[in-house]
Write a structure and sequence with these properties.
110 residues
Length: 110
């Protein structure tokens, strides 16, 4: 079974429903993701100061996004809520995500 297809189908449909209604939200999220990328990458550093600074930077950027885009932030929370509901109620989605995580963990351990 291609677990990525299951996740894309189930979780992707949730994203599409919201982003078709508001394509600018996708652009704003992409920009936020780009802004967060460096800080997220630094979370795996061994240096605790770097991890702490990166964590604060991530939270700060998310809070700024929320302040500048309150309606979009609420929409993002709705999307996350639906994704979590799908994960909890749809055994195929949960198994697919767990399989992807196990696959990644196995690669990281080799």
């Amino acid at each position: 079974m291609n677990f990525y297809k299951v996740v894309l189908k189930n979780i992707g449909s949730i994203f599409l429903k919201y982003f078709i209604k508001n394509p600018f939200l996708f652009a704003k999220l992409a920009k936020l993701g780009i802004n967060l990328k460096d800080s997220i990458d630094k979370l795996s550093a061994k240096d605790l100061d770097i991890k702490a600074e990166s964590s604060i930077d991530i939270i700060d950027n998310i809070l700024k996004f929320r302040a500048e885009n309150p309606k979009d932030f609420d929409t993002i929370l709705e999307v996350l809520e639906e994704m979590i509901k799908d994960y909890k109620t749809n055994p195929k989605t949960k198994e697919a995500i767990m399989s992807i995580l196990r696959e990644k963990q196995a690669k990281d351990n080799n």
